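Reviewer 2 asked us to include a model.

Predict the structure of this chain.
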Amino acid sequence: MTDPVLVVNAGSSSLKLSIIAAGSDNPLAATTVESWEGEDVDTVVSFAQGHRIDAVGHRVVHGGALFTAPVVIDDTSREAIASLTSLAPLHQPRALAGIDAVRRALPDRPAIACFDTAFHASIPSAASTYAVPETWREQWGVRRYGFHGLSHRWASRRAAELLQRPVASLAMVTCHLGAGASLCAVDGGSSVDTTMGFTPLEGLVMATRSGTVDPGLVIWLLRNGLSIDEVDDGLEHQGGLLALAGTGDMRELLAARAAGNHAATETFGVYVHRLCREVAGMTSALGRLDALVFTGGIGEHAPEIRAAVGERLAYLGVAIDAAANQSAGADVVISDPGASVATVVVTAHEDVEIATQVRQLLISH
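Predicted model (C-alpha cells):
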C-alpha cells in the first residue's frame, strides 16, 4: 500500500501541504504558506524532510473534458493540464507551479493529479449542456463543469458512513459552503448536478463572488461604460457578501446580524434564500432527498445558517435538532430523530480524498 502521501493544494495565492497516512483522517503533518509565488522549492523540501513519502497527490482545479479521473503526472499530462489554463486562469498556473516545484524537490516519487471537476464528469448532458450556439459548445468546450468535486465526493461518502448506509442507496445534496460555495446532487455516490458551471462564478452567493446573475446584466454593463476588467472584478472580487454587507467573512456577518445590523440581516436573508432555492433545484435531479450534508468552513461552523436552511426546507422533510445543531462538532448527524431527511455535518477533507485517489490509482497500475 502506498503510504504516506504528500498532498499539495496550491491555491490562487497560498500553498497547503499535508502528509496523509492510510486509514487516517488526521494528517501526520501539515503546513500552509499564505503567500506562495510558486518557485520556493525549499518550502517543499523542508516540509518533506523527516517524513517518509511514497507518493504525491496534487489538487488541480480544472480537468476540462480531458481529465475525468486522476492521472499520473508526466510531461504529456503536465502539458495537457497547462492547456486548460484559460478555463481557470487564477488556479491552474499555481497548480502547475506546485507540480513543478515538487517534481524538482522529489523527482523519484510518483505524482498524481486529482481534479476538482472530475467528480462531476458523471453529470448527464441534460444538466451539463448550456443552450448556446453549437460552435461555442464544440469549439470552446462551453458546458457545465462544476467544481469542489473532491470535497463533494468526500462529504457524500463520509455522510453515508455516519448514517450507516451504503452510499449507493442514498440521494443527497452536499453543501460545500466556504468563501467559495457550491452544491452537488449526489445519487448513489455519483454527481448528477451541481451549482457551479463553466466557471466557479455560477450558483450560490459567495464571499466575494456574486453567484448567478442575469447574463443580460453583464452585457448591459459593458454597453454602458464598464470595461471587461471592471465587470470581472465586480463579479469575482467585489460581489457576494462583501458587496451586500461590507465583509466577505461570514463570521463577521453573523456577529453583525446578532448585534442588529440591518445590512447584515438583509444579506443573511439573501444568502439563505439563494442557498435554499438551489438545494430545492438539486432535489429535482434526484427525485427524492435522503440526506442534506453541510461541509466547508461555513457549513461546519455556522449553526445559524444550518438552522435557517432547515426551517425553510421543512416541506422537503428536513428537520434539525436545535441542541445538536448548536453543539455540532466534527462529523455528526444533527437531524431531528423523526425527520424523514437526515442532516449531517461533515468536516472537509479534500486532502484525505486526494490521498485516497492517489492510492487507488497506483494500486490499479
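The mean pLDDT is 94. The longest helix spans residues 262-286. We have added this to the supplementary material.
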